[in-house]
Amino acid sequence: MTQLKQHPKQQELIKFAYWVPNVSGGLVVSNIEQRTDWSYDYNVKLAQTAEKNGFEYALTQIRFTAGYGAENQHESVSFSHALLAKTDKLKVIAAILPGPWKPALAAKQLATIDYLTEGRIAINVVSGWFKGEFDAIGEVWPEHDERYVRSEEFIRTLKGIWTTDNYSFDGKYYTFKEYTLKPKPLQKPHIEVFQGGSSRAARDMASRVSDWYFTNGNTPEEIKKQVDDIREKAKQNNHQVKIGVNAFIIARDTEEEAKAVLQEIIDKANVEAVNAFGDATREAGAASKEGEGNWAKSTFEDLVQYNDGFKTNLIGTPEQIAKRIVELKSIGVDLILSAFLHFIEEVEYFGEKVLPLVRELERKSENQQQITAKSA
Ligand SMILES: Cc1cc2nc3c(=O)[nH]c(=O)nc-3n(C[C@H](O)[C@H](O)[C@H](O)COP(=O)(O)O)c2cc1C
After folding, report:
1. Rounded to whole angstroms, how far apart are CA atoms 82 and 300?
2. Ligand 1 site: residues with CB under 6 angstroms?
3. Residue 215 CA to ligand 1 centre (angstroms)
4. In this structure, is residue 42 part of a structural domain?
5. Most exposed: 25, 169, 269, 285, by fewest CB within 10 Å?
6. Residue pLDDT, tens place only, 176-199
7. Measuring CA to CA, which residue among 216, 368, 359 is closest to residue 295?
């Protein structure tokens, strides 16, 4: 009988994930040298390096076509499984798009992977932002908020199938009649469900059904607004949701070096690809009724990292970055989703130089809280 592998309990510590470079071109749309590769061999080495260096999660991306220089894309679920086969502790979050994926197949496929990997698969339900991609593969393209209606049904049905026998659901997009999935996933109560997107519709969905809310990079002030908003609504819905924030990390021995790398990335931006990406994103956050979702306010420079990762400003010395990470934690962020220019070497540097400082600051702040609590 396969046993569920226990994940180390680190509830009180901020968690780290990294973007799997399963698409070509790295995580910045720039002609700067990137010692990052989308091949399987590179990704296996990266995953093994990451789990040794304190990363608990990896996130694979799903793309069927791409307009921002990521010409080649390995499929997310099979790639995630292949990385899980070569690692021990890492959890891999596979991005899934409702539309191409149907919940019956996704539930079954993921439950099997859960068994084969001792409970280390998770998913990121992404609602789609690129109409050209959906047109190319013959999928219908519901308008912005409707995509979230479908995603919410997708998540509800997955969780229903994973936890309930004789499961029935009569929704707008999906129907189940007394369906029993066997075996159910190993992870209890079910496989973790992340979601990506920041619009009103995305936040409302997170506050009702998702286990994790992933958002694009942003300033602590803007992230705090999202965290407060989602947590307040989740409380009303009697639901708990954790928060993950994207950041492109440039950690160097001096602040000048780190800033110079950022400048070089931007100076060497692939202007045509960034602009094409910017045009495609108008179907996303800006298309939502309130116009507040991902990329709604992104500048050209922001878009060079395609999930606004520079805005989070984890760019500087290990000390500066550790301090900013702990600030993010203090406003309610549970996880940093990181990307790097030269993934393997920088994940190692992060594990050796930045992470110990983060843990030290967390310990200090915990001690401080205990002293304050005692003297109150
Ligand atoms: C962390 C993160 C990861 C994402 N990964 C993918 C992906 O792999 N594939 C994809 O098509 N969209 C991906 N998206 C895009 C979202 O699903 C969504 O379409 C986009 O953020 C716009 O959402 P909004 O209009 O609700 O803000 C991701 C978004 C975030 C924040």
Report:
1. 35
2. 61-63, 95, 97, 124, 126-129, 196-199, 202, 214-216, 246, 284-285, 288, 293-294, 307, 337
3. 8
4. yes
5. 169
6. 999 999 999 999 999 999 999 999
7. 216
